[in-house]
Amino acid sequence: MKTARAVSLKVLLATSPAPGSQSQSLDRALARYLPLLNEARDRGLAQHLSYSTLRWLGATQFISRRLLKKPLKAKDRDIHLLIQMGLVQLWREAIPAHAAVHETAAVARGLRKPWAVPLINGVLRNFQRQRQQLEAELQDSPARWSCPEWLLQEVKAAWPDNWQAILNANNQAAPMWLRVNLRQYSRQKYLALLHENKLTAVAGKWSSAAICLEQAVPVNQLPGFANGAVSVQDSAAQLAAEILAPQAGDRILDACAAPGSKTCQLIELQPEIAHLTALDNSEKRLRKLTENLQRLQLDCEIICADAAAAKNWWDQRKFDRILLDAPCSSTGVIRRHPDIRWRRQAEDIATISKLQQQILNQCWQLLKPGGRLLYATCSILPAENQLVVTSWLESVSNARVVPLETDWGLSAGVGKQLLPGVSDTGEDGDGFFYCLLEKLPHE
Questions:
Q1: Which residues lie closer than 8 Å to 47 by C-beta, 6 or more apart?
Q2: How many domains does the chain have?
Q3: Which domain does 32 fall in, by range?
Q4: Would you give the DSSP letter of residue 18?
Q5: Is residue 206 part of a domain?
Q6: Do 186 and 63 share a structural domain?
Q7: Residue 440: is its pLDDT beyond 70?
Q8: Three-state DSSP class for residue 321
Q9: Is 378 a catalytic residue?
Q10: Which of 8, 26, 121, 414 holds its CA 20 to 30 A away from the CA of 44?
Q11: Nearest to 431 by CA among 394, 360, 393, 376
């Protein structure tokens, strides 16, 4: 019989694999393994433990090394992950100690490693006895941030005044933001509807449709969700469609569109769009986009193709507006996807930035003179953001940067940068970069 902790271990093994092996995303691993559990309560616990253990993987590795008399062998990585899962329960979660210790250790029996049961028990009991000393040692170590060294140094270099706030935010659960479908409800009316359903929420300060729930809930508890009244979307992400400002009669391309939140928002903002093409190179992710469109009772052209190879799909008709939510390291949404920090490597950034320039250059060829392209990422690293744009600008003569006159975000040269945990207005949004470009009349 599968337990929540046994299933969580499967997720952790898939998302934080041994060096040299390929990892799965946390979302994919959860989708694969959570159905092994019959009870919703167990699935919820397995998901929560997976998130929390991945969030604190660096810190619990530091602690476990001080508690183990000798390092575990590579073949016993599952046992080390169980120890880290147990440490998270004792250290960061409101889980009774006896359950955290006993039920975590018991998973080792199902792995046919009964020798590990007393080892796990002993390590976790020792943590309880030595907790104060271990926490003090952790506070004096870079491991307190539970962040890979390369990423820690990148964030420090990029944001010397804000790096601690960013890393602290990365180790917190992200708030649940909603985007009200203003074609169905005003934001104030939907807030009242939430109140009627005993759900506490506040209006966002950045986006006109944003609402933040005080406590996250399953989407089926949101009034009108099934009928398209509201969608789940971070407040920082909601700014993309508003910055692009679609106009009646526009032909719009949403490049790298899946899973479709921004696609849907563009249509909600401007129902009189002449034509919208949603492009993505993943059929699986496009299925999610289709589901979102159907729920919201919206429609657009959907194409599965590579945004960097327009010759394979483009009909030679140029666009008035292009949203390029470029593939990136996703370092601005680590708190939503804690596996990212462990799955990314320092060398990935140069590869990604090269791809970003290729897609930006290709999309620029598809834009009408006088049209606008919004370059966006959910990254906080300059190498994927302003440096990509400034480098690309040196290669073209028909582009100008449109200043973003906003009361949100930090100036990032050619654009604006939002950082998790950093906001003058108190808004708790994800990390996003935005740069709006206009094509000059001459080609």
A1: 8, 30, 34
A2: 3
A3: 4-146
A4: P
A5: yes
A6: no
A7: yes
A8: strand
A9: yes
A10: 121
A11: 376
Q: Are residues 202 and 258 in the same domain?
A: no
Please name the residue that has the structure tokens 């979302």. 27
Instruction: State the DSSP H helix or E strand holding residue 54, giving kind and residue range, or none if neither.
Output: helix 40-55
The angle formed by the CA atoms of residues 416, 420 and 421, to the nearest 5 degrees, is 115
Same domain (yes/no): 249, 224: no
Strands ordered across the beta sheet of 176-180:
201-203, 210-213, 176-180, 230-232
Asked whether residue 316 falls in the same domain as residue 223, the answer is: no
Q: How far, in whole angstroms, is CA 389 from its chain's centroid? A: 22
Short-list 77, 106, 104, CA closest to 16:
77
Among residues 375, 380, 412, 428, which one has the least CA distance to residue 206?
428
Residues 339 and 416 in one domain: yes
Per the domain annotation, does 93 fall within a domain? Answer: yes
Assign residue 184 the CATH number of its domain. 3.30.70.1170
**Which residues, in sequence order, are bridge partners of residue 278?**
254, 302
Out of 146, 168, 190, a domain closes at 146
Amino acid 213 reads L
Q: Which CATH number covers residue 61? A: 1.10.940.10
> Amino acid letter at 186?
S
Encoded tokens for 156? 């420090």
Radius of gyration of the chain (CA): 23
Q: Is residue 167 part of a domain?
A: no
For 333-374, give the secondary structure using H, E and C.
Answer: HCCCCCCHHHHCCCCHHHHHHHHHHHHHHHHHHCEEEEEEEE
**Residues 123-171: tens digit of each pLDDT:** 999 999 999 999 999 999 999 999 999 999 999 999 999 999 999 999 9
CA 214 – CA 199 distance, rounded (Å): 8
Backbone angles phi, psi at 87, to 5 degrees: -60, -40
**224, two tokens:** 């009108």
Spell out where 269-355 has E strands. 275-280, 301-304, 319-325
Q: Is the omega angle on the peptide bond into residue 259 within 30 degrees of 0, that is, cis?
A: yes
- The answer on 99 and 67 residing in a single domain is yes
User: Does 82 reside within a domain?
Assistant: yes
426 and 385 in a common domain: yes
Q: Say if residues 341 and 147 touch (Cβ distance below 8 Å).
A: yes
Q: What is the pLDDT of residues 331-359, one digit of tens each?
A: 999 999 999 999 999 999 999 999 999 99
> Which among 147, 256, 328, 378 is annotated as catalytic?
378
Task: Name the nearest CA neighbour of 360 among 392, 321, 386.
Answer: 392
* 246 close to 269: Cβ distance less than 8 angstroms: yes
Q: Indicate if the pLDDT at residue 4 is higher than 90.
A: yes
- Quickly tell me which residue has 């062998």 as its tokens: 73
Residues 85 and 44 occupy one common structural domain = yes
